[in-house]
């Protein structure tokens, strides 16, 4: 199998996701095939650390990533990215300035990435990517709003039940300490909630 054919096979899922949002042209498909980089990230390694400029947007092919920041010396998980999800450190990436966010692999992970300059070029030359980008950014915003809604719930058990309803796969895959920080509870509280029967 040629290197290009192998890449196309690995990219099939990403191209399918993009095409399901809005049809992509052969020219955009070729551009992405030429520009996207495949990267393997071992468990616990970082794609981004606080103080760096986020220069890439990522599509998760396989594995699990988390985004977090430090608050009063504690890691606060803010997002998880499983297969088929996009991840970017928004403030840093869109403004091309240093950010406060970390992106770390929870499992051995494979991602496709495209750099900021190439993405801006693609936005200028492939109108369909503007539509796709807007929809993906809207989805990301809504997920952030959903997390804020979870956190505003007074009862920790209600936050957990909502995660079980909307993201049951993450409940099973994300380590307890990361899930606890995402739900703004202690690990002990999370353990008690998990032992309850609903």
Walk me through the structure.
The protein has 198 residues and is an alpha+beta fold. It has a domain at 3-129: Jelly Rolls (Sandwich). It is 53% helix and 22% strand. The protein contains 9 helices and 8 strands. It has helices spanning 3-21, 26-35, 90-95, 116-125, 127-152, 156-166, 168-173, 176-182, 187-195, and strands spanning 37-41, 46-48, 56-62, 65-71, 74-81, 86-87, 102-105, 109-115. The strands form 2 sheets. The chain has a 4-stranded antiparallel β-sheet with strand order 1-8-3-6. A 4-stranded antiparallel β-sheet has the order 2-7-4-5. The chain starts with a helix and ends with a helix.
Give the terminus-to-terminus CA distance: 52 Å
Which CATH C-level class of the domain at 3-129 is it? Mainly Beta
Query: Helix and strand string, N-terminal first?
Result: HHEEEEEEHEEHHHHHH
Q: Mean of the pLDDT scores?
A: 88
Report the CATH superfamily of the domain at 3-129.
Jelly Rolls
Helix/sheet category: alpha+beta
Cα-based radius of gyration, to the nearest Å: 18 Å
Q: Please state the overall shape, judged from the principal axes of the Cα atoms.
A: globular
Q: Biggest β-sheet, characterized?
A: 4 strands, antiparallel
Strand order of the largest sheet: 1-8-3-6
CATH fold group of the domain at 3-129 = Jelly Rolls
Describe the SSE topology.
Elements: H1 3-21, H2 26-35, E1 37-41, E2 46-48, E3 56-62, E4 65-71, E5 74-81, E6 86-87, H3 90-95, E7 102-105, E8 109-115, H4 116-125, H5 127-152, H6 156-166, H7 168-173, H8 176-182, H9 187-195
Antiparallel strand pairs: 1-8, 2-7, 3-6, 3-8, 4-5, 4-7
């Amino acid at each position: 199998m040629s290197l290009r054919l192998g890449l196309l096979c690995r990219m099939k899922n990403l191209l399918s996701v993009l095409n399901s949002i809005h049809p992509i042209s052969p020219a955009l498909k070729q551009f992405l095939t030429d520009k996207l980089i495949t990267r393997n990230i071992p468990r616990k390694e970082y794609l981004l650390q606080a103080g760096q400029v986020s220069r890439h947007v990522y599509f998760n092919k396989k594995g699990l990533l988390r985004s977090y920041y430090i608050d009063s010396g504690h890691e606060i998980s803010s997002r998880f990215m499983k297969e088929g999800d996009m991840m970017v450190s928004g403030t840093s990436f869109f403004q091309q300035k240093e950010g406060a966010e970390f992106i770390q692999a929870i499992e051995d992970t494979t991602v496709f990435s495209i750099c900021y300059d190439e993405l801006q070029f693609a936005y200028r030359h492939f109108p369909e990517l503007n539509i796709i980008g807007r929809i993906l950014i809207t989805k990301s915003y809504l997920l952030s709003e959903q997390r804020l809604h979870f956190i505003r719930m007074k009862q920790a058990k209600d936050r957990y039940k909502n995660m079980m309803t909307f993201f049951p796969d993450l409940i099973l895959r994300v380590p307890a300490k990361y899930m606890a920080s995402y739900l703004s509870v202690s690990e002990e509280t999370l353990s008690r909630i998990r032992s309850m029967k609903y």
